Every structure is written in C-alpha cells, then in structure tokens.
Amino acid sequence: MAKIKHKNKKSVTKRFKVSAKGKIMMKHSHRSHQAHSKSTKQKRHLKHDAHLSAAMAKRHRYTIE
Known about the structure:
Elements: H1 10-15, E1 16-18, E2 24-26, H2 40-46, E3 50-51, H3 54-64
Antiparallel strand pairs: 1-2, 2-3
C-alpha cells in the first residue's frame, strides 16, 4: 500500500525558508508601513532575515519541508 504523502502548508512555505544549516528563516515585521516614524537604525536592522526560535521551529518544521 502506498505511503500517504503530507502536503506543505502553502501559506507557511511562502513566509519561511530553510537556511543551509537547517534553521528556519523569516522576515521581520513592522517594515512595510509608516517608515517615516522609524529610525534609520531600526529600518536597517529589520531588513535582515531572522531565525525562528527553537520552540517555534519544532512546530513549523513539518509544514515547510
């Protein structure tokens, strides 16, 4: 009998990606609106991707891969 194949959650697949070391990366929030009220330093730090915490990565691991 054939093994059941799990489908990826498309919404999660679009929001997260897996790095080369296997960590789950995500974009920072609070970047798209009202940029004039944020400092340049804050906008610069929000530009880079963030790692998902270990607890959250355990929850989302099966939906991405």
